[in-house]
Specification:
Radius of gyration: 21 Å
Shape: elongated
Number of strands: 0
Number of helices: 8
Order of helices and strands: HHHHHHHH
Largest sheet: none
Structural class: mainly alpha
Strand content: under 5%
Length: 230
C-alpha cells in the first residue's frame, strides 16, 4: 500500500523493534522453560519455602517471555502485512505492557527494600542449587547476575565455587569484585530512583512503539479510503 515517508519509517521501526522484542522473549521463555523442566531443578517446584523465590522468579520469566513473544508475533505480522487487526491487537497488548512496566517501576521504588531482599534471596537460591547441581541453566542465570551487576558469588572475588560464571576482567578488578547479595541490596536501597528510571525508560520505549503503531494504522486506513473502487 502507498505509505508516506512517516508511515514507511514507522513500519521499519516496528519491524526492527519486534524482531529484537522476539529475540528477548525467546531468550527469557527458553531459559525459563529450561529452569522449569530441567531434571536438576524440576523438584524445586514442589511446595518448599526454601525455593519459593526461585519458583516465583522462573514462573515470571516464563510468563513474561511468552507475553513478549506473543506481542512480537502480532506486531511483526501487522507491520509486515500492513494488517489493521494485527496492529490493533499489538497496540492493545503493548499498552498493557507499558502500564505494567510503569506500575512495576513505581512499586519497586516504593518497596525497594522488600524487592531487593526478595531478589537477593532468589540469587542465593540459584547460587546454592548451582553449587549443588551444576545445571547449565543455573550457570546462565548466575552469569547474567554477575555480568550485569559486576559482582561474584556470596563472598566476592574469592568465591571459587562460581568463578567460571563471574565477569572476566583484569587482575585488579577481579580481586575487588564484591559479593552479589550485598550489591543487590545496595542497588535497591541506595539507587531506587535509578531502578525506577530503568522501568520507566522501558515503558517509554514501548510507548514510542505504540505511537508508531498508531501512525501506521492511520496511514493504512487513509490508503484504504483513498484506494480507487472498481
Amino acid at each position: 500500500m502507498a505509505l508516506d515517508g512517516c508511515g514507511q519509517l514507522c513500519k521499519c521501526f516496528l519491524i526492527m523493534f519486534n524482531i529484537i522484542f522476539a529475540l528477548v522473549g525467546m531468550a527469557m521463555f527458553g531459559l525459563g522453560l529450561w529452569l522449569r523442566f530441567s531434571s536438576e531443578t524440576r523438584g524445586f517446584f514442589n511446595i518448599d519455602l526454601n525455593t519459593q523465590q526461585f519458583v516465583i522468579g522462573v514462573s515470571v520469566l516464563i510468563a513474561l517471555g511468552a507475553v513478549i513473544l506473543l506481542v512480537a508475533v502480532f506486531g511483526d505480522y501487522g507491520a509486515c502485512n500492513e494488517n489493521m487487526n494485527g496492529l490493533a491487537v499489538f497496540s492493545c497488548l503493548l499498552a498493557i505492557l507499558a502500564v505494567v512496566e510503569i506500575a512495576a517501576g513505581v512499586f519497586t521504588y516504593m518497596r525497594s527494600d522488600v524487592v531487593g531482599e526478595q531478589l537477593a534471596k532468589f540469587y542465593m537460591t540459584v547460587y546454592a542449587q548451582y553449587v549443588d547441581k551444576g545445571d547449565p541453566g543455573l550457570a546462565v542465570t548466575l552469569s547474567m547476575f554477575h555480568n550485569v551487576l559486576h559482582c561474584c558469588g556470596l563472598i566476592g572475588a574469592l568465591d571459587l565455587l562460581v568463578k567460571q560464571t563471574c565477569p572476566k576482567t583484569g587482575i585488579w578488578d577481579t580481586l575487588t569484585l564484591p559479593a552479589c547479595p550485598t550489591v543487590i541490596l545496595n542497588l535497591f536501597e541506595s539507587k531506587a530512583p535509578l531502578v525506577m528510571g530503568l522501568f520507566l525508560g522501558t515503558a517509554a520505549m514501548l510507548i514510542t512503539a505504540l505511537v508508531c503503531c498508531s501512525i501506521l494504522m492511520k496511514q493504512i486506513k487513509k490508503s484504504h479510503l483513498s484506494a480507487p473502487v472498481y
